[in-house]
Amino acid sequence: MLAEYKNVTINRKDKTVLKNISFSLEPGTFYYLVGRVGSGKSSLMKTMYADVPIVSGDEANVVGYNLLDIKEKEIPYLRRKIGIVFQDFQLLQGRSVFSNLEFVLRATGWHHKDDIERRIKEVLVEVGMSNKSYKMPHELSGGEQQRIVIARALLNKPELILADEPTGNLDPQTGFQILTLLHKLVETGHTVLMITHNLQLLEDFPGKVFRCVDKSLVAE
Fold it and tell me: In the prediction, which pLDDT does 152 show?
């Protein structure tokens, strides 16, 4: 299992948002995480990369790390094994596409120029943006920026990709293209867990569904 939670409780600001939840993620599978606003979806996802602490649980393992007693110094290593795709891109506006990706690689321990250039070229090809490395973020469309964010998430060859509303700021056609790309990643062995409010996507791109409802997590 890439991730496994057993009887986990999650609080935000001293309020319980999810209680005694259990689930697991298998390699090479696409998962949706759905539910109303405020139902705990993002809080759950943030616990998986140790951005939100877990209050209690019998088990909480993600890509080989025990989140119930993870040490501060271990968190960067956990996050290297997870690719994170944000709704609002979070690209460095003063840097080119290449420089954005280079910044992440150097921050995660890559030092050799040739290796860095080769890896950046690989991920840009993978997301269909091989001719955009010199562009600044503001010169790209929303869909193009999201492709770069996915490329950034792929840099360290993560086992698990967490996508928080990756199509939320995109028009339907562009969102469709991003989902097509994410599903292709599953075909190459990645596991994707994606938060969405767009239930049409569940019909267009079938996957396994978890729903946050009444402080519980239900597999549909």
Answer: 94
Q: Report which of 116, 94, 113 is spatially closest to residue 105, judged by C-alpha positions.
A: 116
pLDDT of residue 147: 92
Nearest to 191 by CA among 208, 210, 211: 208
Low-confidence spans in the chain with pLDDT less than 70: none
- For residue range 82-132, what is the model confidence (pLDDT) as tens digits? 999 987 778 989 999 999 999 999 988 899 999 999 999 999 999 999 999
* Token couple for 76: 């960067």
The candidate with the shortest Cα–Cα distance to 40, out of 18, 67, 15, 20, is: 18
Question: How, if at all, do strands 3-12 and 216-219 pair?
Answer: unpaired
pTM, entire model: 0.93
pLDDT, position 218: 96
